[in-house]
Specification:
- The chain is 55% helix and 10% strand.
- It is built from 9 helices and 4 strands, in the order βαααααααββααβ.
- Strands 1-2-3-4 form a 4-stranded antiparallel sheet.
Length: 240
């Protein structure tokens, strides 16, 4: 299930969301041009955070706690960054709208740090580098779920050779997403999966909490509609 867009155009230009997407893309382009060894300097390593000891093989960004931030803008490949930026593009504008630009930036970084700490908590001695915006984006998803649970999200649903496009409520799309993370967590902790599921889970629930702590309130107003962009009949769907 791949989300494409939602029914909630923002009331204000979400320039912080756009800025974050641009920064992630810029860092990814930088990654494509430099050796992996150089990139390792900016990735977060749980054992380095918990012990304060640089484990190499290259010198970690100093102070090493700064990697909690730098690693948020790095990605392991095109599909990694494409997925994260798609979710941020779709859901970030409404959360920014309800928090305000400055608070949304604090919220985003706070969610990312909470996600990293959740990942560290289940593997404090891990020497495996971690990178990605998934934890911060997961915080955005958590906040969106509690503020717009009934908002319609257009998704592509793939079932084998059957592909369809359908509008689904956000609680199904985002609730299904977090359920998959929780379901995959136990096995990944035992076998390792190359995915920081606990960071996704920690970021998601941190987003729910941070949204309220930073003064965010659920809007009771109906979202403005753009004629010709969103369908009026959500009971219909197109096949292709």
């Amino acid at each position: 299930m791949i989300p494409l867009r939602d029914e909630n155009p923002p009331r204000n230009m979400p320039f912080v969301t756009y800025m974050l997407i641009a920064m992630n893309v810029a860092v990814f382009l930088w990654q494509l041009m430099v050796p992996e060894q150089q990139q390792l300097r900016y990735m977060m390593v749980p054992a380095e955070i918990t012990t304060g000891v640089d484990r190499g093989p290259v010198e970690t960004l100093q102070p090493m706690y700064a990697t909690l931030f730098s690693s948020m803008f790095m990605h392991a490949g095109f599909m990694h960054i494409a997925g994260n930026m798609l979710y941020l593009w779709i859901f970030g504008d409404n959360v920014e709208d309800m928090l305000g630009h400055g608070m949304f930036l604090i919220f985003y970084f706070g969610g990312g740090i909470a996600a990293a700490l959740a990942h560290i908590a289940v593997g404090p001695q891990s020497g495996v580098p971690v990178l990605g915006a998934s934890g911060a984006v997961a915080a955005v998803l958590g906040a969106y779920l509690i503020t717009h649970p009934a908002a319609k999200v257009m998704c592509i649903v793939i079932l084998g050779f059957f592909i369809t496009r359908i509008w689904l409520p956000a609680w199904i799309v985002l609730g299904g997403w977090i359920a998959l993370q929780i379901f995959a967590l136990p096995r990944s902790l035992v076998e390792g999966a190359g995915v920081a599921y606990m960071a996704h889970i920690g970021g998601f629930f941190a987003g729910m909490i941070l949204f309220g702590l930073l003064g965010g309130k659920k809007s009771r107003e109906a979202p403005p509609q753009r004629d010709g962009w969103f369908p009026r009949d959500y009971g219909r769907y197109d096949r292709y």
